[in-house]
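Many introductory courses stop at the sequence. We go one step further.
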Amino acid sequence: MDQQSKILYTAKTHVSGGREHGVARSSDGRLDVNFGVPGTAQKGTNPEQLFAAGWSACFESAIGLLVRKKRISLSGDVTIDAEVDLNQSEATGFSLTARLAVAVPGVERNVAQALIDEAHQICPYSKATRGNIDVTITLI
């Protein structure tokens, strides 16, 4: 973080039990989730679902910021369908890949694509993943 940056918010969580049978709680009590193994009958979410939801919400907010800044009118809500894959390779171990499918209703396709491209440059999750995982963002 550079010297001119200021912290706007700090998320604080406590996790125990890991991804197989863990629990995650935030310090303010707003998050209280159980973890379960994906693809099993075990109840609970997983880190990939939480990451997909967080990134989607952040990305949508970045688009919303741009829409307000550029005074663009939409005919409905921006929606994002996110997919985050947990991969395993003998060569590199575990990794993630991600796909975001973004709908921007009521604007021309080229305007929507420009919003998505710019949002990908300013969204903190996009910045964090850039160069670290394979990401595909598609306008639908």
